[in-house]
Each structure stands twice: as C-alpha cells, then as structure tokens.
Amino acid sequence: MRATTLLNRLLDLPAIAVSGVSLPAGDPNLMIVDVTVRRRKLSCPHCDYRTRARYDTRPVPTWWRHLDFGRYRVEIRAGLRRLHCPTHGVLVEAVPFARPGARFTRDFDDLAGYLATRTDKTTICRFLRIDWDTVGRICQRVSAEGLDPDRLSTLVEIGVDEISWRKHHKYLTLVTDHRTKKIVWGKAGKSAATLDEFFTELGTEQAAALETVSMDMGPAYAKSVTEHAPHATIAIDPFHAVKLIGEALDTERRTVWNELRATDPAAARKFKGARWALQKNPDNLTDEQAGTLRKLKRRGGDLWRAYTLKEAFRAIFAGDLTPDTVTELIDRWISKASRSRLPAFVKAAKTIRKNRDGILTAIRTGINNGRVEGLNSQVRVIIARARGFHSAEAALGLVTLTCGPITHTLPHEKPKVRTG
After folding, report:
1. Hey, which residues does 213 pair with through a beta bridge?
2. Rounded CA separation 363/16 (Å)
C-alpha cells in the first residue's frame, strides 16, 4: 500500500487526496499533511450556493488541526479556491471536513466538544494541546450545528429560569422542554426583553401551541409570557413560594435579634444559632437546634408566631393533600398572615395572593420548575468545572452542548468515509 493511500485512510476525511507529508525540523511534534480538495463544484460556506466557476486562479493557503497521530499534532494544509456568491460576495470555498470559519476539522471539534461535557478544562487543554478560549469557540460551533433544528416546533409545556454564569449579575435565561427534559433555548440576560427574543424565534403559531409555562415569581418572565402567549397557563413553582416565606421568617428573626441585643444581650446569646433551628425541617434538627427551638417556643412572641406561619405554609406542600384542600389552606394562610402584624409576612402574603393562581396550577398539573432546577444544578457544575467563561456565548455553548437536544457522535462512531 502506498504511503499516500495509507494516509488517506488514516485521516478518513471526505473529498480530499493526500499529496504529501512533512515533519518540520523546527517542531518535532508537528506533522503537516498536504492535501488537495477533490470537488469540481465550489460551495459557499454560508449558504447552499454552488458553482463550477472560480473567481480567480489564485489558491488560498488554508490549514486545519486534525486528530493527533500519537505524539504528533496533525495539521492539514490545502490551497483552496475562491468563488463569487451572489449573496455573500467573494470568499473562499467551503470544505466538507471542517465547519465554516474553523481552523479545526469536524472530527477534532466533535472530540473536543464531547470532552468539554465530561471533564474539566485543564484535562482538555493538556490532552488536546489547545487553550480554553479555543474550547469555548469549539463548543459554540458544535452546539450551533448539532442542536435539533425542530426543538422549538413541538413545545407544549416549558419551564423558564435564569442562572448566573459569572459574578456581578451576569445571567443566562434558559428555556426547558418539560417533555424532553432538555434545555432548548438560551440567551444572555434575565429580563422580559430577553424572553421576548425567545418568542420571536418561536413564532406566533408555535407560541399559540404552548399550554403551560412554569417559572418563579419574578414579574419579568410573567410579563413576556402574558404578552406573547396569553392563553398559556403560568405555573409558579411551590418551592419558590416556600423559599419566600423562609426569607420572611429570617427577616423577622433579624428584627427580634437586633432588639434583644439592644435591650437584653444575655437573652440574645441564649438564642445563638436560632437561624438554622428555625429554617430547617423539624425532623432534621440536631439536639442542640431542637433545644434552641424549645426555648423560642417557651419565650413566644413575634418570632414564634412567624415560625408557626412558616411551618403551616410549608405543610401545605407536603404532597399528601388534594388540590381543593391546598386551595382552601392557602387562602386561610394568606388571610392569617395578612392579619399577623408581622411586616415581612404581610408583604409575603401579598406576593402569595398575587401568584395564587400560578401556585395552584402547579399543584393541579404537577408541572413546576423542579426539573428546571435539576438541570440548573448540572449547569452550575458545568460552570464551576470550567472555572469561568469570557463570554455569555461560550457559557451558553457549553450549557446547550451538555443539556440540550444534541447527539454526540465521536469520530470513530461515524460511518467510514471512502477517500480513494
């Protein structure tokens, strides 16, 4: 077997023929493989336009990094032709073995993208001998091409939530399909305008097919859904409602604590650690925390009343009550909290009343942001493992690559390519 035939088969790239190979003296770990593109028609890298006519006869030297051969970094080098596209003007032809604008072959991109979903950046950078910014750009390319193009055409029940991808209030808005359990859309930001972009991409006809949208109690997303899909039912995650009441309890705790420190420091010291005793499930308290809770009960007052309101609200969502019973208990709780004369709980009761229908919808349908929060936990692991991103697009590329409707196909899993 000739050496060029062997290299053709080892490279396994479509529409190329190996014309030569060299090992530069200046880099003992580099192998350069010269190839020619064996296609008569020239293709535009940005559209489906194809032509046999060249714009000129000047070749454009181009190179791509390919999968390693042992210790050697393999660089594919070719002289490409230029064409004139009626839409995009004069540009260099596309090649079938690399994505437009990439300096890596598809096989290399696919391998790097898969590794990015499974391991940390130090491992990827050392194994593939590339930098982390390059990994981010690869993730954007692979996710943009690999995402299921029909992922938005069958949406019926979705969840919307935001997640921080960087410090200083840098957020991504993520949309999850409850039925496929995949993140189908994302964008930097967390405002109503951000979600408006999702509905613009979704289209009026498909937005009309939405039946339920789960979210937290933030007003921004509700505003966008009400405007673009007014027929869809909004489901408010009960978890966020319980969290709101827990925050109200902590506000009252701080108020009482500050009053005690000013008037009776000795009594204040007795209730050290009361925060955890008040917030935890009574069944999970340590002996010390249970003792603190008994002291608070004997003392009574506003803090104990706030605690009983919190526990009463939490018990509503234990999962063993019918929707009708939950409706009755929520209404009773709102009435009681509104008359409690505890400022934090009066405010919380107004918020619960405003979102009452959405909370009850989540109870009746069983659709809430629990699944979305589960995916968000995966996203947090991804972001932490990456040790940060330089752009929201890079973060979103890795998020969709890991949690989106993408099927990862490694180079050795693809059908064999006949290269001659």
Report:
1. 158, 234
2. 59
Q: Cα(275)–Cα(251) distance, rounded to whole angstroms?
A: 10
Residue whose entry in the numeric block shows the structure tokens 């808005």 = 173
pTM comes to 0.78
pLDDT in tens, 268-290: 776 666 888 888 888 888 888 88
Give the SS3 label for residue 326: helix
SS3 of residue 350 by DSSP: helix
Calpha distance 279→281 (Å, rounded): 7
Reduced to 3 DSSP states, what percent helix, strand and coil does the chain have, rounded to the nearest 5? 50, 20, 30
Strand blocks (E) in 7-138:
16-22, 30-37, 42-43, 50-51, 60-69, 72-80, 82-85, 89-92
- Between strands 30-37 and 72-80, the pairing is parallel
Residue range 247-256, pLDDT digits in tens: 999 998 888 8
Residue 229 has pLDDT above 80, yes or no: yes
Rounded (10°) angle between helices 343-354 and 323-338: 140
